[in-house]
Amino acid sequence: MTNETLIPKVGVITDIRKDTPDVKTFRVVGTDGKKLFQHMPGQCAMVSVPGVGECMFSITSSPTNEAYMEFSIKKCGCVTEVLHALEVGAQVTVRGPYGRNFPVEEDFKGKDLLFIAGGIGLAPLRSVINYVRHYRENYGKVVIVYGARSKDDLVDIEEIKTEWMNEPNTEVYLTIDRPQEGWDGNVGFVPAYVKELGLDPNMTAVLCGPPIMIKFTLAGLLELGFDKSRVYTTLELRMKCGVGKCGRCNVGDKFVCKDGPVFRMTELDELPDEY
Amino acid sequence: MLKIAKERLNELYAAIAEAQALVLPLKKAGEVNYGAWAEGVEVSLETLKTVKSPKDMFFPQSENMMKFKTEGKNIEIIDVRGEKTPTVLFGVKACDYKAIEVLDKVFLADPVDTYYQSRREATTIVTLACSKPEESCFCKAFGIDATNPMGDVTTWIDEAYLYWQANTEKGESLTAVVSALLQEGGEAEVAAQQEKTTAILEKLPFSNLDLSRFTPENLNELFNDSAWEEMSEACLGCGTCTFVCPTCQCFDIRDFKTNEGVVRYRCWDSCMYSDFTLMAHGNSRTTQMQRFRQRFMHKLVYYPSQNDGLYSCVGCGRCVNKCPQRLNIVKVIKTLGGKKND
Description:
The complex is a heterodimer. Chain A has helices at about 80-85, 120-135, 155-160, 190-195, 210-225, 255-260, 265-270; strands at about 10-20, 25-30, 45-50, 55-60, 70-75, 90-100, 115-120, 140-150, 170-175, 185, 205-210, 230-235, 250, 255, 260-265. By secondary structure, chain A is α/β, with parallel strands linked by helices. In chain B, the strands form 3 sheets. An 8-stranded mixed beta sheet of chain B has the order 3-2-6-7-8-9-1-10. The two termini of chain B are about 45 Å apart. By secondary structure, chain B is an alpha+beta fold. The longest helix of chain B has 19 residues, at about 290-305. At the A-B interface, strand 6 and strand 13 of A face strand 4, strand 5, helix 3, helix 6 and strand 11 of B.
């Protein structure tokens, strides 16, 4: 019989990193020890614990990582609760990759890039940031603005501090919502911080975070003179199949699973406000 | 064209069923639905609208997709897809046949859904022209000719005969199986019936609905129309319309724990249900108005916009007959479809 996209592959969890009180990053390979499949930054995969359920997650590792895939997952529902209770060596099922990736080889090439993330919103951006770092000479200046509720909620802070902050021609700005002992960085919400930073509006921007953050950050960027056609985001809706058939993530004439999850802001303007 | 006397139809069914499965409208427990033929069943070809459409021949209401066996930390995935029995689906009306075309564009689009595809390929479809359309029928509004459905074989029925015309290779093969029972003739009778039925279709109350406003350009204007509130007010969110609809394709995928491991199955779902879009961190449709609007916008605007203008409604009228609140797509079309509906 022909290949069926809805039938997953078995994946083995080879490492679990506790990033924040409610976010863990899972490293996954196939049962043969090799990477399960290739993907592009911004694409997603369906991860499942049989008997519990299947959920769509963005692949947070860069495609340039040839050894394994990583998923940064926040504990917030039935499936993620069980995933968080798993130990290294446990098996899960994975299928994908699904969806349209960030245009890293097309629109992003040669551009100055601005990445803005809030909380777990860093997960899909980490893939594209590390992809850009891998092919550093193909891209211009990189500015990263990342915020979370507290310093303990910044996902992947080790990699940000030891690698991203030392990357040439790269600026990293961190912020947390409220003052906290041991934090000498910026305090305040992402949208306000973005405006304060007085960013160059000619950059191509990528946003990911809670809907409220995206809304106000986008407004801020437009005030600074950014062009909507060069601002990208990635959407999240309930999905079951991942291939535009089960009907769940339908918004207007698009399916977020296959026509997205990456959208240009100008594309979102054409969709009904229901995401 | 070929024909067979009506009183010999049982011989025809028996001859088909000898070589493959035969599924056709059967009267059982007071309602007519598609079911497998066997000696002694009550076939009801003259029933215009089976309660459920034949869509679950290809897209069953519930179907097992795979099994998982877990041992310690190890997971084994078992593919439960098997070869499908060659089947003849008999007596499909023009609207329901068109609905299969609508479903094909979803399930056979890349990446192909092999669960659907294997059933579709194993099935020969014999359609049956309508001769007594009802007031709730409005296939004509969607450009469907109920007197001349397509399919592998097209049939017509009158008081005396069933007329038979093969359209495809699959249809020719089936004709060969039953050719001993068929005789030449029937062109004049079929033409006369078609003329008569066309005249009835012309006069049906919903045959000339104006759909002109349902275009991709009007997507946002229609979405934001204030009429949705009033139109959806009485909606119970029961989902009956989606279950009887021959084109509704939304499904859920779920796991079920059994003594022999986990079974992953899919089943029909409904965009009319409040948890259809529910995620751990929120719900993108929190009111029944939004869910009601989604169903009709998908059929009349979103789907056509993705499929070269093909509507995802075939005018079968099942929702008109079945909605406990007397809501239906006709009311939506009359309210939003265009000026000629006034």
